[in-house]
Design goal:
The complex is a heterodimer. Chain A is built from 15 helices and 1 strand, in the order H-H-H-H-H-H-H-H-H-H-H-H-H-E-H-H. Chain A has helices at about 30-40, 45-70, 80-85, 90-100, 110-125, 135-155, 170-195, 200-215, 220-230, 240-265, 270-280, 285-300, 300-315, 325-330, 340-370, and one strand spanning about 325. The model of chain A has no long low-confidence stretch (mean pLDDT about 90). Chain B has helices spanning about 55-60, 80-90, 105-120, 125-135, 150-165, 180-195, 210-215, 235-240, 245-255, and strands at about 15-25, 25-35, 40-45, 70-75, 75, 90-95, 170-175, 200-205, 220-225, 225-230. The chains are: A mainly alpha, B alpha/beta.
Amino acid sequence: MSRAPSPPADAGWIQQRKPSEPPPPVERIGFLRWLRDNLFSSVPNSIISVLGIIALVYSVPRAVSWVFIDSVWYTADPGTCRAAGGACWAVITEKHRVMFFGLYPFEEHWRPFLALILYLGTLVISAMPRFWRWRILLPLWIAATAAILVLMLGGVFGLRPLETNDWGGLPLTMVVFTGTMVIGTPIAVLLALGRRSDMPVIKTICVIFIEGVRAVPLVTVLFCAAVVFPLLLPPGITIDKLVRVIIGMGIFFACFQAEVIRGGLQAIPRGQYEAADSLGLRYWQKTRKIILPQAIRIVIPGLMNHVISSFKNSTYVIIVGLFDILNATSASVADPNWIAYYTEAYLFVAFVYFLGAFALSRYSQFLEQRFGEGRR
Amino acid sequence: MADAAPTTDALAPIIRLTSVSKWFGSFQALRNVDLAVGRGEKVVVCGPSGSGKSTMIRCINRLESHQRGRIVVDGIELTDNLRNIESVRSEVGMVFQAFNLFPHLTVIDNLTLAPMLVRRMPKQDAADLAMDYLKRVRIPEQAFKYPGQLSGGQQQRVAIARSLCMQPKIMLFDEPTSALDPEMIKEVLDVMVELAESGMTMVVVTHEMGFARTVADKMVFMDDGEIVEEAPTEAFFDRPGSERTRLFMSQILTH
């Protein structure tokens, strides 16, 4: 029986059946292999790794013992802290009321505390996309603002009346931060749109305003707001000091945010503008529904940068003699008994700022993921 | 004169360009272009790239402005008058080479946006209208997807449906199939043929000569910013008058 002749060498071939798909090979890398690849892959890398390990071995046990093991957490006597070798967290347990609430009267501390809770609750609700409807958010914010103002200022419902001069600490930081956002963000959007406008007067005004304010340090802007601005008001009309400062901060924030938003506006393909125009959409319809949603999604990282900066810039209210959490901490460790332990106090405040900034940063990543940036 | 009411004379051209010239800086993109498009007429514009074909149709809905000459669409003259521009734009639909769908909205939101905002249609009516047009372009099941999840041919059909939802009198197409893979070109052209058969006035810039032969009433060949030849379809394909036209046709018909 002869075999069938094999086809000529140049005949090509046709696939007869679909190949089965085996599962991908499982890769397991041993620990030693991982060490070799990641830490000791080359001579310079190995040297750096060894130095890094030495640094860790030197510093971590000392840090842990300073922070946790040898530290003193509760004592009213600074002498106990002097005797111990570690961190004196007792500074915080002693002074935390002043740090957190500033010069607010001691027996009324429940009021700013409650205001903080309301504020954080409102923020958390506003952050969740499922609540993003005007019908929900607008009443929520109006009610929360009213409640917080009533709590902090008093004068009604039998609460002892207090002024903004008495505010301090964390609630003050929150008020300044929120005020800056609320005032600054709409102005930023308008400035960004104005700068891209075809109308020369609007464009020129926006350019001069943005460049002028950005060129000047924040301290100067606040100083103007606090001291110079009242001179321009008609006699007899005064605006609360804190409100002036918040407006100043808001304007400063707005000028930086405007440029970030303008970057986003520029990044949108021209075709989007053209498609909206060709459908007959008018300027504000097009801007509100097509352009701004896309622009803002693109620049979320840049926007959050300035939001986080603004959160930390709230400390500048010291210019008008108000004590936010950082200044209140500085003031509280000026106490001669505790002055030696300013490190612990500042570390703690840094930690509080870290929590806030980190929360904002994580939220930014959540927003980026939700809007699918980088996947399109 | 600029705000004349739409003409009721059914025989008058619905688009008329008279001696239109346009410059981009010092470069002249359109030279003395004259064109008349009647109601229900299908005009296909062809020509080499840079010939001004896209510029010309973009002048019809004022995405580009002309410096000299007159453009009158449905009795409304296109000048800097914003109200005129807006009325023209709601009667003229445009389909782009790059589709230009709104990526942050679902397909159905893309379609209902303009009717709700410009014609103030209630949401449910706009949604029903949108679904009708999605059925007409044969992709009703994609209504709740995002444009990024659709193929190119599907996206372009959504773009056509989006323009149709404004129920325009005129549809402009700027190289609608040039960015598509060959296997998707047919599905879009089929939709355009059906649209043509339903009586829509269409001005199409395209290289698809098979489509042009089927659908066009009139062919226009442009080169270097001016209309070189304008003729009824049969005559254009069988007996092109100008040498330039013949050269261009030989280049695109042989491949």
